[in-house]
Fold this protein.
Amino acid sequence: MKFRLFFALTATFAIYTCAHADLRFKDDSGQEVRLKAPAKRIVTLAPHAAESLYAAGAGDTLVGTVDYSDYPPAAKKVPRVGGYSRIDLEAVAALKPDLVIAWESGNNLTQVDKLRALGLTVYLFQPNTIADVASQLERLGQLAGTEAIANPAAAGFRQRFTALQTANASKAKVRVFYQIWKAPLMTIGGPQIISDAIRLCGGENIFGHLGQMAPTVSVEAVLEANPEAIIATGMGDAKPEWLHDWDKWTRMTAVKRDNLFHINPDIMQRHTPRILDGTEKLCAYLEIARSRRPAKP
């Protein structure tokens, strides 16, 4: 009888302890993050973080975000706390979040440290590969307690990602210049997630050897590399006018074969499940470039 009572009390204590144990995670910077329970009030400091939070089934926890957080439409109604590069610290603190999700390479890390100094819990995300997006969904589900939605979403993402890999595994290489801005002329370096998308599609980023996320390059460097295709983003769905500034360089292979393409940055430059939409479009463009190669004699 005493043994059964002892066992019952021990089991009850164990259940109580587990229910009230801190949740511990390592963020993408390697720093430990602790929560007493899944977060119920979350502020995101990047548009892609807000979008992924909704994809992980935790949109109802979003109480603050930054400018350009416009997807899904519900995100447009969430209060703003500045832009991703300049955060209104007082506005963040006033929302009393139990978790702030920041972007390691995009946010001002000095400001992020100030948020920590205010006693706020900060989780840093830095997805650098497409596969990281699925892991990000799972982690957001853990942070917000929405694993029942986040885990199937991550599984579906991986399934679609694997199908794209398989479909493009044996494709001939296409040398690509990916232009994100005109003045200054900006591209993407090797660590950037879009470089991973280019590789998946059987492409080769002509500036993939550069270690910066978004390096500035010269027109001369592009001409010397002689890409077979140029992909430009710009702003929104409209093709940027400056894409056809390259038309005058008639000796460049991309111009000679009319391989000047455009992808909406929202589906290519945000680290969210929609990056597979952008990657599918990128793969289709590279296939067009392959089809325009002159026939071998």
The two ends are 92 Å apart (CA to CA). Residues 57 and 146 are 6 Å apart (CA to CA). The longest strand covers residues 174-179. Confidence is low (pLDDT under 50) at residues 1-20.
